[in-house]
Write a structure and sequence with these properties.
Elements lengths: L1 H5 L17 H11 L1 E5 L8 H11 L5 E5 L12 H7 L4 H13 L1
Parallel strand pairs: 1-2
Length: 106
């Protein structure tokens, strides 16, 4: 958020610490402001937050463009520090900022 703010971009961060219950109202309120959503979750792309957010938006007819930063189809290596694992899996500040900028451009 700080890196994007430095370039004049503003954003709203929702800390959704559980998938159940998921705060549908907060998600709908936030996404309806811009029609954009970026989910960041330290897990596989299957069965996670991004899919649940998409389900909520679709079921309420809220049009949105979205991007996800997650493991995708990758797996953590059996060696290395947390920082090394994070960067290998795409959880660097640079990658998150790049993904956010790509989302904003669309």
């Amino acid at each position: 958020a700080d890196e994007l703010a430095k370039s004049g971009l503003s954003l709203e961060i929702l800390y959704l610490h559980t998938l159940k219950p998921l705060d549908d109202v907060a998600i709908l309120d936030s996404v309806s402001k811009t029609g954009k959503v970026l989910t960041i979750e330290f897990q596989s792309s299957v069965g996670g937050l991004h899919g649940d957010v998409a389900r909520i938006l679709l079921s309420h007819g809220v049009p949105a463009t979205g991007q996800a930063v997650d493991f995708g189809e990758n797996f953590a290596r059996a060696y290395g520090s947390f920082k090394e694992h994070s960067e290998f899996l795409g959880f660097s500040v640079e990658n998150i900022v790049r993904t956010a900028r790509r989302l904003i451009a669309h």
